[in-house]
Write a structure and sequence with these properties.
This protein has 8 helices and 14 strands. By secondary structure, it is of the alpha+beta class. The strands form 4 sheets. A 6-stranded mixed sheet has the order 10-9-11-12-13-14, sandwiched between helices. β1 and β2 form a beta hairpin. The protein starts with a strand and ends with a strand.
Amino acid sequence: MEVGATTAVHPDGHRVATARDWVPEAPVALEFNGVAYAVMMATPADLADFATGFALTEGLAASPAEIADIGVAEVDAGWVVRTAIPALPLDRLGERIRNRAAESSCGLCGIESLEALARPLPPVRPHVAIAAPAIFAALHALPALQALGRATGAAHAAALATPAGAITLVREDVGRHNALDKALGAAARAGVSPAGGFVLSTARCSFEIVEKAVRAGATTLVTISLPTSLAVERARAAGLSLWALARDDSVLLVNDAGQ
């Protein structure tokens, strides 16, 4: 983590020299079966987790068992992560790349993407409703586990928690989607299903966050910000329990799909 010299300027003009930790950010090229798929701006840590979660949430792999190998290499321009998925047909990979070319990092455009968005998500499995005290317990515990966030104040986090609110893993990244992919990927590589408890994200709850959670097998998602209308629509259609605007003193139950 790079430390830079800065100057804090106060309203009265008083200046104080300070040192800040900058959140690491670098280009990370993701390759699948030797084919360049995407270049993401990401924090270059936990990259095997990132590739695993990305493959699952992009629909390139149905389970971590389909991922045969992941290689991570630092190069002059950034990082390259090479993932082998033997069961992934080349034509399917090529079609997904063509569709992805019409997508931005935070949205969709183009007829293929609109048609993809209209397709239903996999139905979320029946699950037990999470009690609000468990959410507050996880919210209370998360800041102490955000090492990068504490050092920089500029990193997103995603965590997995048990039904009682005990956090089992945390991943951080400069990007909100990346942090979630890392957390879901770490859980998959450890053989931990996100269906048993809930996913907690510090990100804005856009439809991509909902879709990634559903595709990775999560049953309950908690975010600290309000969801978009499309995120709510997709969560309700899939049967994902969704809590939002999670704060120390309240949390908003958006979609109650638990039993």
